[in-house]
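re: that chain from earlier
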Amino acid sequence: MDEHDDPEREFDIRWADAADHKEPSARARMLAARWKENPPNPQPFRADPEPVAPRRSSWVSTAIVLGCVAAVILLLGYARFQAPY
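^ sequence. v structure.
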């Protein structure tokens, strides 16, 4: 009888979840070994890696966008004015 047809050897997720001891993943074992020699520094919850630069005023951003739109409109109008019919 082929071992793939044996219903008793089929993996049962409920049986695996009920196990008393669960082996950690390879990454967890690697980090545990690394941290045993060189533990990481404590960090606050969701700490920023570095200070955030202050944002520009929303009016400056709005003026830049509107200026670019006006420049494109003028450029397209000039190109159409110069094109022969």
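The chain has a mean pLDDT of 81.
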